[in-house]
Amino acid sequence: MRKIDVFDTTLRDGEQTPGVNLNSIEKLEIAKQLERLGVDIMEAGFPASSKGDFEAVKKIAQTVKGCSVTGLARANEKDIDWAWEALKDSAEPRIHVFLATSPIHMTYKLKKTPDQVVETAVNAVKYAKQRFPQVQWSAEDACRSDRKFLVEIVTKVIDAGATVINLPDTVGYRSPEEIGHLFRYMMENVPNIDKVKLSTHCHDDLGMAVSNSLAAIENGALQIEGTINGIGERAGNASIEEVAVALKIRNDHYKAETGLKLDEIKRTSNLVSKLSGMAVPANKAVVGANAFAHESGIHQDGVLKEKTTYEIITPELIGVYSNRLVLGKLSGRHAFKQKVQELGFDLSDTKLNEAFQSFKDLADKKKEVTDEDLFVMLTDKQTESAEAEKYELKSIQVQYGTENIPTATIVATSPDGSRIQEAATGSGSVEAIYNTLERMVDGDLQLQDYRLSSVGRGRDALAEVFVKVTYEGVESSGRGTAQDVLEASARAYLNAVNRVYINGFQKKFKRTANV
Ligand SMILES: CC(=O)SCCNC(=O)CCNC(=O)[C@H](O)C(C)(C)COP(=O)(O)OP(=O)(O)OC[C@H]1O[C@@H](n2cnc3c(N)ncnc32)[C@H](O)[C@@H]1OP(=O)(O)O
Ligand SMILES: CC(C)C(=O)C(=O)O
Protein backbone atom coordinates (compact mmCIF):
# COMPACT_ATOMS: atom_id res chain seq x y z
CA MET A 1 0.00 0.00 0.00
CA ARG A 2 1.52 3.39 -0.99
CA LYS A 3 1.57 5.97 1.81
CA ILE A 4 0.23 9.36 0.69
CA ASP A 5 1.40 12.38 2.72
CA VAL A 6 -1.33 14.83 3.67
CA PHE A 7 -0.36 18.49 3.31
CA ASP A 8 -3.10 20.52 4.93
CA THR A 9 -3.49 24.14 3.83
CA THR A 10 -6.65 25.05 5.76
CA LEU A 11 -4.69 27.77 7.57
CA ARG A 12 -3.25 29.28 4.35
CA ASP A 13 -5.30 28.56 1.21
CA GLY A 14 -8.36 27.88 3.43
CA GLU A 15 -7.96 31.29 4.99
CA GLN A 16 -7.99 32.80 1.49
CA THR A 17 -11.74 32.00 1.44
CA PRO A 18 -13.51 35.32 0.92
CA GLY A 19 -14.76 36.54 4.31
CA VAL A 20 -12.76 34.07 6.40
CA ASN A 21 -10.56 35.80 8.92
CA LEU A 22 -8.96 33.72 11.67
CA ASN A 23 -7.08 35.33 14.52
CA SER A 24 -3.92 33.75 15.92
CA ILE A 25 -5.74 32.04 18.82
CA GLU A 26 -8.17 30.40 16.39
CA LYS A 27 -5.39 29.40 14.00
CA LEU A 28 -3.51 27.75 16.85
CA GLU A 29 -6.64 25.89 17.95
CA ILE A 30 -7.17 24.53 14.43
CA ALA A 31 -3.44 23.69 14.17
CA LYS A 32 -3.62 21.58 17.35
CA GLN A 33 -6.62 19.71 15.98
CA LEU A 34 -4.88 19.12 12.62
CA GLU A 35 -1.98 17.64 14.58
CA ARG A 36 -4.46 15.34 16.37
CA LEU A 37 -5.95 14.39 13.00
CA GLY A 38 -2.49 13.26 11.96
CA VAL A 39 -1.68 15.45 8.96
CA ASP A 40 1.93 15.09 7.82
CA ILE A 41 2.47 18.74 6.96
CA MET A 42 0.42 21.80 7.82
CA GLU A 43 0.79 25.08 5.98
CA ALA A 44 0.22 27.54 8.80
CA GLY A 45 0.11 30.71 6.69
CA PHE A 46 2.06 33.15 4.52
CA PRO A 47 4.52 34.81 6.95
CA ALA A 48 5.44 37.75 4.68
CA SER A 49 1.81 38.67 4.06
CA SER A 50 1.15 40.43 7.40
CA LYS A 51 2.49 40.85 10.92
CA GLY A 52 -0.53 38.93 12.25
CA ASP A 53 0.06 35.95 9.99
CA PHE A 54 3.79 35.98 10.76
CA GLU A 55 3.05 35.80 14.51
CA ALA A 56 0.46 33.04 14.00
CA VAL A 57 2.85 30.90 11.93
CA LYS A 58 5.63 31.43 14.48
CA LYS A 59 3.40 30.42 17.39
CA ILE A 60 2.18 27.32 15.54
CA ALA A 61 5.75 26.34 14.58
CA GLN A 62 6.80 26.64 18.23
CA THR A 63 3.80 24.69 19.55
CA VAL A 64 3.06 21.90 17.09
CA LYS A 65 5.69 19.18 17.21
CA GLY A 66 3.81 16.12 15.94
CA CYS A 67 4.01 17.10 12.27
CA SER A 68 5.93 19.36 9.95
CA VAL A 69 4.84 23.04 9.84
CA THR A 70 5.41 25.10 6.72
CA GLY A 71 4.69 28.57 5.35
CA LEU A 72 4.25 30.00 1.87
CA ALA A 73 6.75 32.39 0.24
CA ARG A 74 7.03 34.05 -3.14
CA ALA A 75 10.21 33.41 -5.07
CA ASN A 76 12.13 36.26 -3.49
CA GLU A 77 14.64 36.62 -0.66
CA LYS A 78 12.45 38.87 1.48
CA ASP A 79 9.55 36.37 1.67
CA ILE A 80 11.99 33.51 2.34
CA ASP A 81 13.67 35.49 5.15
CA TRP A 82 10.30 36.16 6.79
CA ALA A 83 9.40 32.48 6.47
CA TRP A 84 12.69 31.48 8.13
CA GLU A 85 12.09 33.83 11.05
CA ALA A 86 8.63 32.34 11.53
CA LEU A 87 9.55 28.69 11.03
CA LYS A 88 13.07 28.27 12.39
CA ASP A 89 11.80 26.83 15.71
CA SER A 90 9.67 24.12 14.07
CA ALA A 91 10.55 20.44 14.47
CA GLU A 92 11.63 20.14 10.84
CA PRO A 93 11.86 23.58 9.12
CA ARG A 94 10.14 23.41 5.77
CA ILE A 95 9.31 26.15 3.28
CA HIS A 96 6.87 26.31 0.39
CA VAL A 97 8.14 28.55 -2.42
CA PHE A 98 6.00 29.14 -5.49
CA LEU A 99 6.28 30.78 -8.89
CA ALA A 100 3.85 30.66 -11.80
CA THR A 101 4.83 28.81 -14.96
CA SER A 102 1.85 29.20 -17.32
CA PRO A 103 2.10 31.58 -20.29
CA ILE A 104 -0.86 33.62 -18.98
CA HIS A 105 0.69 34.14 -15.55
CA MET A 106 4.25 34.70 -16.80
CA THR A 107 3.20 37.26 -19.42
CA TYR A 108 0.50 39.26 -17.67
CA LYS A 109 1.14 38.86 -13.95
CA LEU A 110 4.88 38.32 -13.51
CA LYS A 111 5.86 40.14 -16.72
CA LYS A 112 8.82 37.78 -17.08
CA THR A 113 10.12 35.65 -19.94
CA PRO A 114 10.25 31.86 -19.39
CA ASP A 115 14.04 32.09 -18.99
CA GLN A 116 13.68 34.74 -16.29
CA VAL A 117 11.11 32.55 -14.51
CA VAL A 118 13.52 29.59 -14.53
CA GLU A 119 16.30 31.79 -13.15
CA THR A 120 14.07 33.29 -10.44
CA ALA A 121 12.78 29.87 -9.35
CA VAL A 122 16.25 28.28 -9.24
CA ASN A 123 17.74 31.22 -7.29
CA ALA A 124 14.86 31.18 -4.81
CA VAL A 125 15.15 27.44 -4.17
CA LYS A 126 18.95 27.71 -3.76
CA TYR A 127 18.49 30.59 -1.33
CA ALA A 128 15.80 28.73 0.65
CA LYS A 129 17.93 25.58 0.75
CA GLN A 130 20.70 27.44 2.61
CA ARG A 131 18.41 27.36 5.66
CA PHE A 132 15.55 24.94 5.17
CA PRO A 133 16.27 21.20 4.96
CA GLN A 134 12.89 20.69 3.29
CA VAL A 135 12.02 22.92 0.33
CA GLN A 136 8.76 22.47 -1.55
CA TRP A 137 8.52 24.29 -4.86
CA SER A 138 5.17 24.84 -6.57
CA ALA A 139 4.74 25.63 -10.25
CA GLU A 140 1.67 27.83 -9.84
CA ASP A 141 -0.85 27.18 -12.64
CA ALA A 142 1.17 24.10 -13.63
CA CYS A 143 -1.88 22.55 -15.24
CA ARG A 144 -2.11 25.34 -17.84
CA SER A 145 1.66 25.37 -18.45
CA ASP A 146 3.56 24.09 -21.44
CA ARG A 147 4.67 20.54 -20.58
CA LYS A 148 8.15 20.78 -22.08
CA PHE A 149 8.75 24.01 -20.16
CA LEU A 150 7.44 22.36 -17.01
CA VAL A 151 9.92 19.49 -17.45
CA GLU A 152 12.77 21.97 -17.92
CA ILE A 153 11.98 24.12 -14.87
CA VAL A 154 11.17 21.18 -12.57
CA THR A 155 14.45 19.45 -13.52
CA LYS A 156 16.45 22.61 -12.71
CA VAL A 157 14.59 23.30 -9.48
CA ILE A 158 15.26 19.75 -8.29
CA ASP A 159 18.96 20.24 -9.08
CA ALA A 160 18.80 23.45 -7.02
CA GLY A 161 17.69 21.46 -3.95
CA ALA A 162 13.88 21.13 -3.93
CA THR A 163 12.63 18.10 -2.02
CA VAL A 164 8.95 18.25 -3.03
CA ILE A 165 7.52 19.40 -6.36
CA ASN A 166 3.90 20.50 -6.42
CA LEU A 167 1.93 20.74 -9.67
CA PRO A 168 -1.19 22.73 -8.77
CA ASP A 169 -4.38 23.02 -10.78
CA THR A 170 -4.55 26.61 -9.55
CA VAL A 171 -7.77 27.55 -11.32
CA GLY A 172 -9.51 24.15 -11.19
CA TYR A 173 -9.46 23.81 -14.97
CA ARG A 174 -8.40 20.25 -15.72
CA SER A 175 -10.30 16.95 -15.84
CA PRO A 176 -9.14 13.86 -13.91
CA GLU A 177 -7.89 12.25 -17.11
CA GLU A 178 -5.81 15.30 -18.04
CA ILE A 179 -4.32 15.57 -14.53
CA GLY A 180 -3.47 11.86 -14.65
CA HIS A 181 -1.68 12.36 -17.99
CA LEU A 182 0.30 15.34 -16.67
CA PHE A 183 1.57 13.45 -13.62
CA ARG A 184 2.44 10.39 -15.70
CA TYR A 185 4.23 12.64 -18.24
CA MET A 186 6.29 14.30 -15.50
CA MET A 187 7.13 10.95 -13.90
CA GLU A 188 8.37 9.68 -17.28
CA ASN A 189 10.17 12.79 -18.56
CA VAL A 190 11.83 14.57 -15.63
CA PRO A 191 15.21 12.80 -15.38
CA ASN A 192 15.79 13.46 -11.66
CA ILE A 193 12.17 12.94 -10.52
CA ASP A 194 13.20 10.09 -8.21
CA LYS A 195 14.92 12.65 -5.94
CA VAL A 196 11.59 14.30 -4.94
CA LYS A 197 8.00 13.63 -4.00
CA LEU A 198 5.36 14.85 -6.43
CA SER A 199 2.44 16.69 -4.88
CA THR A 200 -1.05 17.58 -6.11
CA HIS A 201 -2.99 20.74 -5.17
CA CYS A 202 -6.39 21.01 -6.85
CA HIS A 203 -9.05 23.71 -6.81
CA ASP A 204 -12.76 23.06 -7.19
CA ASP A 205 -13.89 25.61 -9.79
CA LEU A 206 -15.48 22.89 -11.91
CA GLY A 207 -16.26 20.60 -8.97
CA MET A 208 -13.44 18.17 -9.80
CA ALA A 209 -10.84 18.88 -7.10
CA VAL A 210 -11.23 15.58 -5.24
CA SER A 211 -11.42 13.46 -8.42
CA ASN A 212 -8.40 15.29 -9.81
CA SER A 213 -6.41 14.67 -6.61
CA LEU A 214 -7.23 10.97 -6.77
CA ALA A 215 -6.21 10.87 -10.44
CA ALA A 216 -2.87 12.44 -9.54
CA ILE A 217 -2.37 9.83 -6.81
CA GLU A 218 -3.06 7.07 -9.32
CA ASN A 219 -0.36 8.52 -11.57
CA GLY A 220 2.54 9.11 -9.20
CA ALA A 221 1.64 11.82 -6.65
CA LEU A 222 2.83 10.92 -3.15
CA GLN A 223 1.44 14.02 -1.48
CA ILE A 224 -2.05 15.49 -1.56
CA GLU A 225 -2.81 19.09 -0.64
CA GLY A 226 -6.19 20.36 0.42
CA THR A 227 -8.28 21.81 3.19
CA ILE A 228 -10.79 20.65 5.75
CA ASN A 229 -14.35 21.03 4.41
CA GLY A 230 -12.81 22.09 1.07
CA ILE A 231 -12.68 25.78 2.04
CA GLY A 232 -10.31 28.01 0.07
CA GLU A 233 -9.84 30.61 -2.63
CA ARG A 234 -12.95 30.99 -4.90
CA ALA A 235 -14.77 27.61 -5.03
CA GLY A 236 -12.25 26.12 -2.62
CA ASN A 237 -9.69 23.33 -2.53
CA ALA A 238 -9.88 19.55 -2.55
CA SER A 239 -11.51 18.37 0.68
CA ILE A 240 -8.87 16.42 2.55
CA GLU A 241 -11.46 14.36 4.39
CA GLU A 242 -13.05 13.27 1.11
CA VAL A 243 -9.75 12.19 -0.43
CA ALA A 244 -8.68 10.33 2.73
CA VAL A 245 -12.00 8.50 3.12
CA ALA A 246 -12.08 7.65 -0.61
CA LEU A 247 -8.62 6.08 -0.28
CA LYS A 248 -9.78 4.13 2.76
CA ILE A 249 -13.10 2.89 1.36
CA ARG A 250 -11.69 2.18 -2.13
CA ASN A 251 -8.24 0.90 -1.16
CA ASP A 252 -8.98 -2.11 -3.37
CA HIS A 253 -8.83 0.34 -6.29
CA TYR A 254 -6.30 3.02 -5.29
CA LYS A 255 -3.96 0.79 -3.26
CA ALA A 256 -2.87 3.87 -1.31
CA GLU A 257 -3.60 5.23 2.15
CA THR A 258 -3.02 8.29 4.31
CA GLY A 259 -1.86 8.25 7.91
CA LEU A 260 -4.88 10.28 9.10
CA LYS A 261 -6.80 9.26 12.20
CA LEU A 262 -10.07 9.16 10.36
CA ASP A 263 -12.15 9.22 13.53
CA GLU A 264 -10.89 12.78 14.16
CA ILE A 265 -12.44 13.98 10.89
CA LYS A 266 -15.85 15.02 12.17
CA ARG A 267 -14.44 16.98 15.07
CA THR A 268 -11.93 18.74 12.80
CA SER A 269 -14.69 19.59 10.34
CA ASN A 270 -16.90 21.00 13.13
CA LEU A 271 -14.07 23.11 14.52
CA VAL A 272 -13.07 24.55 11.13
CA SER A 273 -16.69 25.28 10.28
CA LYS A 274 -17.29 27.03 13.58
CA LEU A 275 -14.13 29.12 13.62
CA SER A 276 -14.21 30.03 9.91
CA GLY A 277 -17.95 30.76 9.91
CA MET A 278 -18.25 28.57 6.78
CA ALA A 279 -21.25 26.28 7.27
CA VAL A 280 -20.92 22.71 5.95
CA PRO A 281 -23.72 21.99 3.45
CA ALA A 282 -26.00 19.21 4.74
CA ASN A 283 -25.39 17.14 1.60
CA LYS A 284 -21.60 17.45 1.61
CA ALA A 285 -19.79 14.12 1.17
CA VAL A 286 -18.36 12.55 4.35
CA VAL A 287 -19.05 15.37 6.85
CA GLY A 288 -22.46 16.78 5.83
CA ALA A 289 -25.32 16.39 8.33
CA ASN A 290 -27.16 14.14 5.87
CA ALA A 291 -24.18 11.96 4.96
CA PHE A 292 -25.54 9.09 7.07
CA ALA A 293 -29.27 9.92 7.04
CA HIS A 294 -31.74 7.68 5.23
CA GLU A 295 -35.01 9.37 4.29
CA SER A 296 -36.99 7.18 1.90
CA GLY A 297 -38.85 4.00 2.79
CA ILE A 298 -37.03 1.62 0.48
CA HIS A 299 -33.66 2.85 1.73
CA GLN A 300 -34.76 2.67 5.38
CA ASP A 301 -36.07 -0.85 4.84
CA GLY A 302 -32.76 -1.85 3.23
CA VAL A 303 -30.63 -0.32 5.99
CA LEU A 304 -32.73 -1.95 8.71
CA LYS A 305 -32.20 -5.33 7.06
CA GLU A 306 -28.53 -4.82 6.23
CA LYS A 307 -26.68 -1.48 6.64
CA THR A 308 -24.38 -2.02 3.69
CA THR A 309 -27.30 -1.93 1.25
CA TYR A 310 -27.13 1.86 1.33
CA GLU A 311 -24.16 2.76 3.57
CA ILE A 312 -20.62 2.57 2.26
CA ILE A 313 -19.12 4.63 5.11
CA THR A 314 -19.95 4.05 8.77
CA PRO A 315 -20.44 7.16 10.91
CA GLU A 316 -17.96 5.74 13.43
CA LEU A 317 -15.22 5.77 10.78
CA ILE A 318 -15.14 9.58 10.84
CA GLY A 319 -15.85 9.89 14.57
CA VAL A 320 -19.64 10.27 14.70
CA TYR A 321 -20.82 8.33 17.75
CA SER A 322 -24.29 8.00 19.18
CA ASN A 323 -24.68 10.01 22.35
CA ARG A 324 -23.19 7.74 25.03
CA LEU A 325 -23.33 10.13 27.97
CA VAL A 326 -26.34 12.47 28.15
CA LEU A 327 -25.76 15.62 30.17
CA GLY A 328 -28.42 17.68 31.91
CA LYS A 329 -28.86 19.90 34.94
CA LEU A 330 -28.37 16.99 37.36
CA SER A 331 -25.01 15.95 35.88
CA GLY A 332 -21.90 16.43 37.95
CA ARG A 333 -18.30 17.45 37.43
CA HIS A 334 -16.99 13.94 36.68
CA ALA A 335 -19.44 13.27 33.86
CA PHE A 336 -18.83 16.77 32.52
CA LYS A 337 -15.05 16.31 32.56
CA GLN A 338 -15.40 12.93 30.85
CA LYS A 339 -17.60 14.45 28.13
CA VAL A 340 -15.17 17.36 27.62
CA GLN A 341 -12.38 14.82 27.03
CA GLU A 342 -14.57 12.68 24.75
CA LEU A 343 -15.21 15.77 22.63
CA GLY A 344 -11.43 16.22 22.33
CA PHE A 345 -10.95 19.34 24.49
CA ASP A 346 -8.03 19.83 26.81
CA LEU A 347 -8.96 22.66 29.18
CA SER A 348 -6.94 24.02 32.09
CA ASP A 349 -8.53 23.53 35.54
CA THR A 350 -9.64 27.17 35.61
CA LYS A 351 -11.25 26.99 32.17
CA LEU A 352 -12.83 23.64 33.04
CA ASN A 353 -14.42 25.17 36.14
CA GLU A 354 -15.67 28.16 34.16
CA ALA A 355 -17.02 25.83 31.47
CA PHE A 356 -18.77 23.70 34.10
CA GLN A 357 -20.48 26.83 35.45
CA SER A 358 -21.58 27.86 31.92
CA PHE A 359 -22.81 24.31 31.33
CA LYS A 360 -24.88 24.40 34.54
CA ASP A 361 -26.38 27.77 33.54
CA LEU A 362 -27.29 26.35 30.15
CA ALA A 363 -28.68 23.14 31.64
CA ASP A 364 -31.02 25.22 33.80
CA LYS A 365 -32.55 26.63 30.63
CA LYS A 366 -32.36 23.54 28.37
CA LYS A 367 -33.74 20.06 29.02
CA GLU A 368 -30.78 18.26 27.51
CA VAL A 369 -27.38 19.74 26.70
CA THR A 370 -26.32 18.07 23.46
CA ASP A 371 -22.82 17.35 22.19
CA GLU A 372 -23.32 20.14 19.63
CA ASP A 373 -24.21 22.65 22.39
CA LEU A 374 -21.14 21.62 24.36
CA PHE A 375 -18.88 21.72 21.32
CA VAL A 376 -19.88 25.32 20.60
CA MET A 377 -19.59 26.34 24.25
CA LEU A 378 -16.19 24.68 24.75
CA THR A 379 -14.75 26.05 21.51
CA ASP A 380 -15.72 29.56 22.64
CA LYS A 381 -14.08 28.90 26.00
CA GLN A 382 -10.91 27.51 24.40
CA THR A 383 -10.48 30.37 21.93
CA GLU A 384 -11.35 33.30 24.18
CA SER A 385 -8.43 35.47 25.16
CA ALA A 386 -8.36 36.37 28.82
CA GLU A 387 -5.61 38.98 28.53
CA ALA A 388 -6.97 41.00 25.63
CA GLU A 389 -8.63 44.28 26.33
CA LYS A 390 -12.20 43.93 25.21
CA TYR A 391 -15.79 45.03 25.37
CA GLU A 392 -17.88 42.74 27.53
CA LEU A 393 -21.66 42.50 27.45
CA LYS A 394 -23.19 42.80 30.91
CA SER A 395 -26.92 43.09 30.22
CA ILE A 396 -29.31 43.68 27.39
CA GLN A 397 -32.96 44.65 27.33
CA VAL A 398 -35.09 45.00 24.21
CA GLN A 399 -38.58 46.36 23.90
CA TYR A 400 -40.51 45.17 20.88
CA GLY A 401 -44.17 45.41 19.95
CA THR A 402 -45.99 45.65 16.63
CA GLU A 403 -47.22 49.12 17.65
CA ASN A 404 -43.92 50.37 19.22
CA ILE A 405 -40.54 51.48 17.93
CA PRO A 406 -38.06 48.71 18.90
CA THR A 407 -35.66 50.00 21.55
CA ALA A 408 -32.55 48.38 23.02
CA THR A 409 -30.76 49.26 26.26
CA ILE A 410 -27.35 47.71 26.77
CA VAL A 411 -24.83 47.74 29.60
CA ALA A 412 -21.24 46.69 28.88
CA THR A 413 -17.71 47.24 30.09
CA SER A 414 -15.25 48.94 27.76
CA PRO A 415 -11.62 47.84 27.18
CA ASP A 416 -10.42 50.29 29.85
CA GLY A 417 -12.72 48.61 32.38
CA SER A 418 -15.29 51.41 32.66
CA ARG A 419 -19.05 50.73 32.65
CA ILE A 420 -20.95 52.04 29.64
CA GLN A 421 -24.70 52.20 29.12
CA GLU A 422 -26.56 53.25 25.98
CA ALA A 423 -29.98 52.99 24.38
CA ALA A 424 -31.13 53.36 20.77
CA THR A 425 -34.04 52.54 18.51
CA GLY A 426 -34.14 50.71 15.18
CA SER A 427 -36.57 49.43 12.60
CA GLY A 428 -36.30 45.96 14.21
CA SER A 429 -34.90 44.51 17.44
CA VAL A 430 -31.53 43.50 15.96
CA GLU A 431 -31.08 46.90 14.33
CA ALA A 432 -31.92 48.60 17.65
CA ILE A 433 -29.20 46.48 19.32
CA TYR A 434 -26.64 47.26 16.63
CA ASN A 435 -27.44 50.99 16.70
CA THR A 436 -26.90 50.89 20.46
CA LEU A 437 -23.60 49.05 20.19
CA GLU A 438 -22.38 51.43 17.48
CA ARG A 439 -22.94 54.29 19.96
CA MET A 440 -21.04 52.45 22.69
CA VAL A 441 -17.99 51.42 20.74
CA ASP A 442 -15.20 53.88 19.92
CA GLY A 443 -14.61 54.30 16.20
CA ASP A 444 -16.58 53.66 13.05
CA LEU A 445 -18.38 50.29 13.15
CA GLN A 446 -20.54 49.02 10.29
CA LEU A 447 -22.36 45.75 9.75
CA GLN A 448 -21.62 44.02 6.42
CA ASP A 449 -23.28 40.62 6.80
CA TYR A 450 -25.48 38.82 9.35
CA ARG A 451 -26.27 35.09 9.53
CA LEU A 452 -28.38 33.25 12.06
CA SER A 453 -28.52 29.50 12.60
CA SER A 454 -29.50 27.11 15.35
CA VAL A 455 -27.10 24.73 17.08
CA GLY A 456 -28.77 21.32 16.88
CA ARG A 457 -32.48 20.70 16.79
CA GLY A 458 -35.50 21.47 18.94
CA ARG A 459 -37.29 24.59 20.08
CA ASP A 460 -34.79 25.18 22.90
CA ALA A 461 -31.76 24.94 20.58
CA LEU A 462 -29.01 27.55 21.02
CA ALA A 463 -28.95 30.44 18.55
CA GLU A 464 -25.69 31.08 16.74
CA VAL A 465 -25.07 34.39 14.96
CA PHE A 466 -22.21 35.09 12.58
CA VAL A 467 -21.49 38.68 11.50
CA LYS A 468 -19.05 40.45 9.24
CA VAL A 469 -18.24 44.07 10.07
CA THR A 470 -15.82 46.83 9.23
CA TYR A 471 -14.38 48.54 12.27
CA GLU A 472 -12.31 51.65 11.57
CA GLY A 473 -11.83 50.31 8.05
CA VAL A 474 -10.60 46.91 9.31
CA GLU A 475 -12.66 43.89 8.18
CA SER A 476 -13.56 41.54 10.97
CA SER A 477 -15.99 38.75 11.71
CA GLY A 478 -17.59 37.63 14.94
CA ARG A 479 -19.70 34.85 16.40
CA GLY A 480 -22.09 34.78 19.29
CA THR A 481 -24.10 31.98 20.83
CA ALA A 482 -26.86 32.26 23.37
CA GLN A 483 -30.24 30.78 24.09
CA ASP A 484 -31.81 33.93 22.76
CA VAL A 485 -31.37 35.23 19.21
CA LEU A 486 -31.07 38.85 20.34
CA GLU A 487 -28.39 38.15 22.92
CA ALA A 488 -26.49 36.02 20.39
CA SER A 489 -26.71 38.95 17.91
CA ALA A 490 -25.23 41.39 20.44
CA ARG A 491 -22.48 38.95 21.40
CA ALA A 492 -21.51 38.37 17.76
CA TYR A 493 -21.21 42.12 17.10
CA LEU A 494 -19.01 42.71 20.15
CA ASN A 495 -16.96 39.62 19.31
CA ALA A 496 -16.17 41.11 15.88
CA VAL A 497 -14.99 44.33 17.53
CA ASN A 498 -12.96 42.47 20.16
CA ARG A 499 -11.20 40.47 17.47
CA VAL A 500 -9.85 43.73 16.04
CA TYR A 501 -8.53 44.52 19.53
CA ILE A 502 -7.01 41.05 19.98
CA ASN A 503 -5.23 41.44 16.66
CA GLY A 504 -3.37 44.42 18.06
CA PHE A 505 -5.25 47.56 17.06
CA GLN A 506 -6.11 48.61 20.60
CA LYS A 507 -3.76 51.59 20.77
CA LYS A 508 -5.52 53.33 17.93
CA PHE A 509 -8.94 53.21 19.56
CA LYS A 510 -8.29 54.31 23.15
CA ARG A 511 -11.02 56.62 24.40
CA THR A 512 -9.90 60.23 24.06
CA ALA A 513 -10.42 60.78 27.79
CA ASN A 514 -7.80 58.13 28.57
CA VAL A 515 -5.10 59.26 26.15
C1 LIG B 1 -2.29 30.73 -5.88
C2 LIG B 1 -2.16 31.32 -4.56
O1 LIG B 1 -2.97 31.02 -3.71
S1 LIG B 1 -0.87 32.35 -4.27
C3 LIG B 1 -1.04 32.92 -2.63
C4 LIG B 1 -2.02 34.03 -2.52
N1 LIG B 1 -1.96 34.57 -1.20
C5 LIG B 1 -1.80 35.85 -0.98
O2 LIG B 1 -1.75 36.68 -1.87
C6 LIG B 1 -1.67 36.24 0.48
C7 LIG B 1 -2.06 37.64 0.78
N2 LIG B 1 -1.27 38.58 -0.02
C8 LIG B 1 -0.72 39.70 0.47
O3 LIG B 1 -0.82 40.00 1.66
C9 LIG B 1 0.01 40.56 -0.50
O4 LIG B 1 -0.42 40.27 -1.82
C10 LIG B 1 1.56 40.39 -0.40
C11 LIG B 1 2.02 40.92 0.97
C12 LIG B 1 1.97 38.95 -0.54
C13 LIG B 1 2.26 41.20 -1.48
O5 LIG B 1 1.77 42.51 -1.44
P1 LIG B 1 2.35 43.64 -2.42
O6 LIG B 1 3.82 43.71 -2.27
O7 LIG B 1 1.58 44.88 -2.12
O8 LIG B 1 2.09 43.13 -3.92
P2 LIG B 1 0.74 42.80 -4.68
O9 LIG B 1 -0.01 41.77 -3.93
O10 LIG B 1 -0.02 44.03 -5.04
O11 LIG B 1 1.34 42.19 -6.04
C14 LIG B 1 2.03 40.98 -6.01
C15 LIG B 1 3.46 41.15 -6.54
O12 LIG B 1 4.14 39.90 -6.32
C16 LIG B 1 4.57 39.35 -7.59
N3 LIG B 1 4.47 37.93 -7.48
C17 LIG B 1 3.36 37.14 -7.55
N4 LIG B 1 3.69 35.88 -7.34
C18 LIG B 1 5.02 35.85 -7.15
C19 LIG B 1 5.93 34.82 -6.87
N5 LIG B 1 5.50 33.58 -6.73
N6 LIG B 1 7.22 35.12 -6.72
C20 LIG B 1 7.66 36.39 -6.83
N7 LIG B 1 6.84 37.43 -7.09
C21 LIG B 1 5.52 37.14 -7.24
C22 LIG B 1 3.60 39.96 -8.59
O13 LIG B 1 4.10 39.91 -9.89
C23 LIG B 1 3.51 41.40 -8.03
O14 LIG B 1 4.73 42.03 -8.34
P3 LIG B 1 4.83 43.56 -8.87
O15 LIG B 1 4.48 44.40 -7.68
O16 LIG B 1 6.26 43.70 -9.26
O17 LIG B 1 3.87 43.69 -10.01
C1 LIG C 1 0.67 28.51 -3.99
C2 LIG C 1 0.00 27.46 -4.81
C3 LIG C 1 0.35 26.11 -4.36
C4 LIG C 1 -1.49 27.61 -4.79
O1 LIG C 1 -2.09 27.85 -3.77
C5 LIG C 1 -2.19 27.32 -6.04
O2 LIG C 1 -1.56 27.19 -7.08
O3 LIG C 1 -3.44 27.23 -5.98
Folded structure, characterized:
The protein contains 17 helices and 16 strands. It is α/β, with parallel strands linked by helices and 515 residues long. The chain folds into three domains: 2-276, Aldolase class I (TIM Barrel), CATH 3.20.20.70; 333-383, no CATH class; 392-514, Double Stranded RNA Binding Domain (2-Layer Sandwich), CATH 3.30.160.270. Strand 12 (407-413) and strand 13 form a beta hairpin. Helix 1 (24-37) packs parallel to helix 2 (51-63). Residues 13, 16, 46, 48-50, 74-76, 98-99, 109-110, 140, 170, 233 line the site of acetyl coenzyme *A. Catalyzes the condensation of the acetyl group of acetyl-CoA with 3-methyl-2-oxobutanoate (2-ketoisovalerate) to form 3-carboxy-3-hydroxy-4-methylpentanoate (2-isopropylmalate). Mn(2+) binds at residues 13, 201, 203, 237.
In short:
This protein has 515 residues and is α/β, with parallel strands linked by helices.
Distance between the termini: 65 Å
The rough form would be described as: globular
| CATH third-tier fold name of the largest domain | TIM Barrel
| Strand arrangement across the biggest beta sheet | 2-3-4-5-6-7-8-9
Region (Regulatory domain): 392-515
Pfam family, one: HCS_D2
Binding site for Mn(2+): 13, 201, 203, 237
Keywords: Acyltransferase, Amino-acid biosynthesis, Branched-chain amino acid biosynthesis, Cytoplasm, Leucine biosynthesis, Manganese, Metal-binding, Transferase
